[in-house]
Amino acid sequence: MSFWDIPGMKAGVVTGDLAWSLLQHAKTNGYAIPAFNCTSSSTINSVLEAGAKLNRPVMIQFSEGGSAFMAGKSLPNDKGKLQTSILGAVAGAHFVRAVAPAYGIPVFVHSDHCAKKLLPWFDGMLEADEAFFKAHGEPLFSSHMLDLSEEPDEENIAICKKYLTRMAPMKCILEMEIGITGGIEDGVDNSGAAKEKLYSTPEDVWAVYEGLNPISPMFTIAAAFGNVHGVYKAGNVVLKPELLQDMQNYAKEKTGTDRPLNFVFHGGSGSEKHHIATALPAGVVKMNVDTDTQWAYWEGLLKFYKAKEGYLQGQI
To answer: 112, 129, 204, 290: which one is catalytic?
Structure first.
């Protein structure tokens, strides 16, 4: 069945049970919701336009740095407060809510990697969610990501449990990361990470499920299987998406349920089709894309300038 056949499915921002049903539809039907990092109204609009042309759901996501850019980099963004990052993410979410229905597709609004040092940003967004929930019966954002993969696993899971407990009454979805995604993302440099940290184990992932599922089933796991942020040359990174199926098999043995885990594929830019094809049946419901679209944006500007160079220079 089409995702449009999900009861209550609508154009515009989806949250709660409806958003979760859409992720489960993706899992059942072997596709993932593409999630694009956005920093401006123009990047948001381009993602919505592409989704509308293809008649496919999309996810708009904001990183902490991208959120600050959304509000304006000249504004103060004090360490320990991150007030401009909060402002930009909240403003971006409201903008998406305002325009998304006009594009005729379901849209998730999500916040990307939040390391421990960025938790004030996360707290500010949750306060906005709670205020919106009080007024409208749903959170402002569809979902948020905590990336505490730099911390010991026990601390990572404990903090995720604390926040999921706060998010569960609003049916706001939590994404968490176990194991490390290599490369550099939003100022977090994992390019020198030990190779073993780039691959999660079934036991690692099961510990996450065991800790979070009693609180709410509405969580996804960005398990590491060699992922790296950015575009990389073939052979420089050894992706092992088959590990995700091993994790599912382990969890199935424990729960008696087929594919109980919901995975996120990080570092999607430049990934080869056969790796994506292996990951999808293993329960990947969301796939992140950033570097590819950054380059497309820049390349589009460059081509426009070159095509109109005479005219543009004539205006100076």
So the answer is: 112
